[in-house]
Amino acid sequence: MFNIGFSELIVVLLIAFLVVGPKDLPKVARWLGRMVKKLKQLIREVKQETGWDDLEKELKDTKASVTDLKKDLDITAELKDASKDLNRSLNSVKDELQQTGKEIREETAEIQHETMKK
After folding, report:
1. Residue at 19 is within a domain
2. How does pLDDT run across 33-70, given as a tens digit for each residue?
3. DSSP track, 50-91
């Protein structure tokens, strides 16, 4: 609730020991414990009376459904797959064009060689 670590608690208890004194420290600690308990109960009652708990639950449910919807609508994986397929196809076409170009160069060289012989 207050997010107090062990070292902070030791410092607070040391200061309380110095301010209140060792004789009254247990009484002050019990009183402080009761006040914290009453404060928690009061907060719980206010949440219930105002419907804050219901609103909080509804917001969590809405967040969960929006997160699920976002996952459902996420098309990045599909786009990555399509990109990979497109790259494979383009590489295949590139290889075929290179092979065709190589064959054309070879045939052109043969034709030039034959024309030079004549």
Report:
1. yes
2. 899 899 999 988 888 888 887 888 899 999 999 999 98
3. HTHHHHHHHHHHHHHHHHHHHHHH--HHHHHHHHHHHHHHHH
Residue 1 inside a domain? The answer is no
Q: To which H or E segment does residue 45 belong?
A: helix 25-50
Closest CA to 15 of 2, 1, 28: 28
CA dist 46 and 118 (Å) reads 107
- pTM of full prediction above 0.85: no
Residue 68 and residue 76: Cα distance in Å, rounded? Answer: 15
On whether residue 14 sits in a domain, the answer given is: yes
- Per residue in 108-118, pLDDT tens? 988 888 888 76
- Measure the CA angle with vertex 98, ends 110 and 109; round to 5°: 10
Domain range for residue 13? Answer: 6-117
Total number of domains constituting the chain = 1
